[in-house]
């Protein structure tokens, strides 16, 4: 018997009012991220649980694997969270807005 993964939505289906939680590492975030996203790397989640925003969350990484793990972790702890399937690669492919923390155009790395 297989277990279903965490709830997932595409970049264009993020629930209204949800905070976009980007769990990629610092270099990935700096290269390009959604303008209104909150950055909290997966590797730091357990030590920074008090920094997870209240309310619904849409969790994103590069392709959706890390964010699926974080989504499952957060749902188990009572958070209302969905995984953004396809991650920032899908976000970028859909032409959604992105910004970078340095010179040059925003890009997903």
From TrEMBL:
Residues 1-25 are annotated as: Disordered. Coiled coil: none annotated. Residues 14-100 form the Rhodanese domain. It comes from the Bacteria. Transmembrane segments: none annotated. InterPro entries: GlpE_sulfurtransferase, Rhodanese-like_dom, Rhodanese-like_dom_sf. Pfam families: Rhodanese. PANTHER family: FAD-DEPENDENT OXIDOREDUCTASE (PTHR43031), SULFURTRANSFERASE YTWF-RELATED (PTHR43031:SF17). This is Rhodanese-like domain-containing protein. It comes from Actinomycetospora lemnae.
